[in-house]
Amino acid sequence: MDMKGLLDSFNYAISGFIYAVRTQRNMKIHMVAAIGVILFSLFTNITKAELLALFISITMVMSAELLNTAIESAIDATTNHYHPLAKIAKNAAAAAVLLTAMNALVVGYFIFWEEITTFTYRGVQLIKHSSPYLVLVILIIVALSVILTKAVVGEGTPLKGGMPSGHAAIAFSLATIISYLSDSTIAITLSYLMAVIVAQSRVDSKVHSIKEVLVGGVLGFLVTILIFRVFAL
Q1: 65 is catalytic
Q2: Catalytic residue among 65, 72, 114, 115
Q3: CB contact burial 157-171 (16+ within 10 A = b; e otherwise)
């Protein structure tokens, strides 16, 4: 294979990946989750072996989703009517994605559980003994991060629409703050449930897309965690 053919094969592969990210909702979710996990891993003390296991798990999930997309596209291109075998093929491909995602969750649990519990304990102690203005500072930084992101992306206005959702960012930031302040599992669960409801309301009102509220939620969560981490140093 000559150099041009090699470059073309890479271009075709990258095009397939970009197509999946643009058109498949689950692929978007996998991308956001992968970015969030990788960013979080930068603030932990995981070993090289654990990082390798993490990358392998992420690669497996995305590869399964790409194969699922390929199988669905091939079936849709060759079948213009319902066929039980086509349904079986699509369901089996979706099951492969589910299995790899479950494996990734298990890997993440074993890698991050001790770090998360230790970090949460330190964070709770930090909040309880820190300035009462820290929560206000966090919310201001989250809001500024949303406005800055919207300015860079060039979508929507600072208070309405565009990437990312400011309401989702603030809601998930507040839920994360509550998870540090409260020892009640019910309170923590309800706070995140309310954050999900806020995000869903932005989608239902057609102000934001699912992708925009997902990015907003992840942004609010990560910025809050990052600030706690910085103050804990």
Answers
A1: yes
A2: 65
A3: eeeebbbbbbbbbbb
